[in-house]
Every structure is written in structure tokens, then in C-alpha cells.
């Protein structure tokens, strides 16, 4: 019987799009079929790859792989699975592939909100020609909360519209683009910005960071945006402030996802939402495949993989 380690991929299309190096073999495991269906190969599975479209409900099946060493995600966020990874198994996330798609969807939401494109679309469906006033991005003071690669891509794009940008991260510092404010300055900065954009990871320290107190410190009429993770925001507080008319919002993510049809946020005024599509562009998939190939090659060579989740 072969002793070559096995890497499982969730579907045949993903297997067809990447090269499998020597030193490992590939099998298809869709995360729904019992792992025992792999037969004698089960004991050789040492690396498992997440499906492209998120985590299935059957994550607990990972415990059924007796030789599992590595779980590789196909997403940047790991909050939904981190606590479910079996003891002794390394978890590696995807990184540096979503900055184009996510920053672009942020720009689309930002411009659509300021220029009231949602009104124009609704008017057009009713064959109404109704010119209206709107806002220019160049006139907005923008606060970006998060300075990772997506936050930096977003800073560059907003700066191209001549809008002043303030950046905030967990720890204040100076870099080549100027000052980065620390988290302790958050409430002092909020009242002075017209647009506030969230692009930080979801973890224990950031869960519901955006809450009622956060919204109360925002400037009345300001635009709140989240293109990170829905759990960073207290959705009930967001709904309350939207319905009160204090703020506007543009979201690519929300808590919960998928959003139930009877959720009150659907009825909120001054809101534009997209269904978590920031990374759903060809450039993101191509980048993900390149990272995946490098990770599998490192595993096959016995080398450390990148983007370990601590």
C-alpha cells in the first residue's frame, strides 16, 4: 500500500485548475460525503482544502481523518472554523488575493451611495426622469479602519478621487503614507468623518466593535460601510440607527449570513447592500489558485506553509 500523503480538494474543477506536485497525491472530498468513503485512502489524508464558496455545515467531519495535519482555507476569514479544527492540526488561511475585488466593491458601494445610484435605478424601473442632487467623493472626509492589503488598496483608490483619508489600526504608528491612528483614538475621530469604512479581521477583540456607542459617535448623516465581516457590527444597533435616520450604510457583509428574508435590515432606509461578493471576481480566484499551488508544493516538500493562523 502506498504511503504517499494525500491532499483532498473539494471538487473536480479545482483539481483541474491546479498542478499537483510529486510527493503528494490528490483526491476529491466534498466535505459532505462521509470521509470513510475514501476507503483505504482515509489514513493517508494529511491536508484538506476548503471549498471555494465557504464552510459547509459538516466541518466536524475533519475529526474523522486520523492522519490530518493541515487544513487550508480558501478564504481570508477563519472565525467560522478556527474553534472547530482538531487539536494538533494546523490551520492556514488565504491571503493577498482579495485586495482588488474587495476594494473595488467598496468603491462601487461608496460611489453608488454618494451619487444615489439606488434612487436612479428605482426611478428607471418606473420610467421616472427625476434629476437630483448628490455628493462628490472629493468633498468627503474618509476614515478607513484597517490598514492591511485591502485597506491600503482602498486608500489608494479613494486618494485618486482627491478625498482626504484618515487611517486607523489597532496600534498607532507612522509609515510611508503618514500617520496611522491607534484604536484608542476611534471615538475622537468618528464625529469628524463623513464616511467610515470597516476592513479589519473578525476575531474576539473585534466582534461587535461597531456597536450602539460607535454609531452614536458618528457624525449625523455620515455613511457607514462594512466590507470585512458582518460579525464586527452589532446588526441590531445598525438597524436602530438606520431607522432613526442618523446614519446611512453600504454593506457587502452582514450578520447573519445568509440574511433571512424576514430580517428587519431589509426594510431600513438609506441602505445599499451586496451579498458578500467582494472576492467573487476572476482575479481573486486566479490569485487563490496560485496561493493554493504554492501551499501544496510546500507541503509536499516538507517546508513550512504560509499564512499560519495562530
Automatic annotation (TrEMBL):
Q: Which SUPFAM superfamilies match?
A: Formate/glycerate dehydrogenase catalytic domain-like, NAD(P)-binding Rossmann-fold domains
| Transferase found in the keyword field | no
- Domain D-isomer specific 2-hydroxyacid dehydrogenase NAD-binding, by residue range, is 107-278
Gene3D superfamilies given in the database record? NAD(P)-binding Rossmann-like Domain (3.40.50.720)
Report the GO molecular function annotations. glyoxylate reductase (NADPH) activity; hydroxypyruvate reductase [NAD(P)H] activity; NAD binding
* Any single Pfam family the record assigns to this protein: 2-Hacid_dh_C
Under InterPro entries, the record lists: D-isomer_2-hydroxyacid_DH, D-isomer_DH_CS, D-isomer_DH_NAD-bd, NAD(P)-bd_dom_sf
* Keyword annotations: NAD, Oxidoreductase
What cellular component terms from Gene Ontology apply here?
cytosol
Say if the entry is tagged with keyword Oxidoreductase. yes
Q: What is the protein name given in its UniProt record?
A: Dehydrogenase
Q: Which organism is it from?
A: Acrocarpospora pleiomorpha
Amino acid at each position: 500500500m502506498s504511503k504517499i500523503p494525500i491532499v483532498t480538494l473539494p471538487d473536480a474543477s479545482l483539481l483541474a485548475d491546479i498542478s499537483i506536485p510529486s510527493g503528494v497525491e490528490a483526491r476529491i472530498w466534498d466535505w459532505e460525503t462521509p470521509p470513510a468513503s475514501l476507503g483505504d485512502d482515509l489514513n493517508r489524508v494529511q491536508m484538506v482544502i476548503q471549498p471555494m464558496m465557504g464552510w459547509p455545515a459538516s466541518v466536524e467531519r475533519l475529526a474523522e481523518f486520523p492522519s490530518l495535519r493541515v487544513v487550508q482555507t480558501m478564504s481570508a476569514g477563519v472565525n467560522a472554523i478556527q474553534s472547530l479544527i482538531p487539536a494538533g492540526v494546523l490551520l492556514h488561511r488565504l491571503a493577498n488575493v482579495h485586495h482588488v475585488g474587495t476594494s473595488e466593491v467598496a468603491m462601487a458601494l461608496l460611489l453608488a451611495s454618494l451619487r444615489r445610484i439606488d434612487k436612479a435605478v428605482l426611478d428607471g424601473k418606473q420610467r421616472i426622469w427625476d434629476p437630483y442632487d448628490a455628493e462628490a467623493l472629493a468633498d468627503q472626509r474618509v476614515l478607513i479602519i484597517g490598514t492591511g492589503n485591502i485597506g491600503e488598496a482602498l486608500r489608494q483608490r479613494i486618494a485618486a478621487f482627491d478625498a482626504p483619508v484618515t487611517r486607523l489600526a489597532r496600534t498607532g504608528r507612522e509609515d510611508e503614507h503618514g500617520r496611522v491612528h491607534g484604536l484608542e483614538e476611534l471615538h475622537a475621530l468618528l464625529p469628524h468623518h463623513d464616511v467610515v469604512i470597516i476592513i479589519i479581521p473578525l476575531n474576539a477583540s473585534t466582534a461587535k466593535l461597531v456597536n450602539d456607542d460607535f454609531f452614536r459617535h458618528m457624525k449625523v448623516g455620515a455613511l457607514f460601510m462594512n466590507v470585512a465581516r458582518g460579525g464586527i457590527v452589532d446588526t441590531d444597533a445598525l438597524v436602530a440607527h438606520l431607522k432613526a435616520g442618523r446614519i446611512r450604510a453600504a454593506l457587502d457583509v452582514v450578520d447573519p449570513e445568509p440574511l433571512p428574508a424576514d430580517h428587519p435590515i431589509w426594510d431600513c432606509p438609506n441602505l445599499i447592500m451586496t451579498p458578500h461578493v467582494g472576492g467573487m471576481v476572476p482575479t481573486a480566484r486566479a490569485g487563490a489558485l496560485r496561493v493554493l499551488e504554492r501551499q501544496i508544493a510546500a507541503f509536499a516538500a516538507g517546508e513550512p506553509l504560509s499564512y499560519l493562523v495562530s
